[in-house]
Design goal:
It is a single chain. Helix content is about 30%, strand content about 25%. The mean pLDDT is about 95. The two termini are about 35 Å apart.
Length: about 260
């Protein structure tokens, strides 16, 4: 069941979303050659703690997971697409890093992700990340009252496929509110004019995940969490929590 949020609830979700935005900003600032993924996780933890927020990632264990997630961020590097577990791996010059972070505060959740390159960036990686950001922007632009879920999916897929990138077929965005994952699912590819009508008060986590090699296949690491491209190509992941309102889409996790 899809819960429609009141305007006051959306305001409260914005406050939580800003904690997520601050955590991602802190992680991006801390990321440098030689810094470990665990140190990036600690940077996010400090922001959550200071804001009186908790992490919906930490201890999360869906049915597919062999163990609870042990961190407050997902840190996916190079050919890892999503759900990477922070480890002692130290960032190298040219690494493409995707960071996903969530927060829970005041009974509401927020969720957002960024991708960036540490050190000197390869042009192909810059294009991949820019395309992921354009796909996210296109999805958000389509998130308006009167459209349907397929319009969001079509907007994202058109940007990704048009640039020659692959899309994970069975992963996408989701509703979000009192819990991090709620109905409805938000696919990254679909047909316009199809699917659930978009209504004022729906809040969605819209999150394109792009595979540079053009294929859609992925594999799961032995840790049971990290999803990695099968062809070894790089990946990018972007995400915002977005409220659908009569005045247009409101990005609750917008960063300065």
């Amino acid at each position: 069941m899809v819960e429609l949020k009141t305007d006051a609830s959306i305001d409260a979700m914005y406050e939580t979303g800003q904690v997520v935005a601050q955590a991602l900003t802190a992680v991006r600032k801390a990321a440098d050659v030689g810094v470990s993924l665990l140190e990036l996780d600690e940077a996010a933890r400090e922001v959550l703690d200071a804001a009186g927020a908790t992490s919906p990632f930490l201890g999360y264990r869906p049915t597919f997971a062999p163990t609870p997630f042990p961190a407050v961020i997902c840190a996916s590097v190079n050919d890892a697409i999503v759900h990477g577990i922070p480890t002692g791996y130290r960032l190298r010059d040219g690494d493409l890093v995707s960071i996903d972070c969530g927060a829970q505060r005041g009974g509401w959740a927020g969720d957002s992700a960024i991708s960036f390159v540490v050190g000197r960036a390869r042009p192909a990686d810059v294009h991949l990340i820019e395309t992921a950001e354009r796909a996210l922007a296109a999805g958000i632009e389509a998130a308006v009252v009167g459209n349907r879920m397929g319009d969001i999916a079509h907007a994202i897929g058109t940007v990704c496929r048009g640039a020659g990138y692959g899309i994970m077929e069975d992963y996408g965005g989701h509703g979000i509110g009192r819990r991090m994952h709620e109905d409805p699912p938000v696919p990254n590819e679909g047909r316009p004019g199809r699917g659930m009508p978009l209504r004022h008060g729906m809040v969605l986590a819209i999150e394109p995940m792009l595979i540079a090699g053009g294929g859609d296949a992925y594999r799961t690491d032995p840790d049971g969490w990290t999803l990695r491209t099968t062809d070894g190509s790089r990946a990018a992941h972007t995400e915002h929590t977005v409220a659908i309102t009569e005045a247009g889409p409101r990005v609750l996790t917008a960063r300065d």
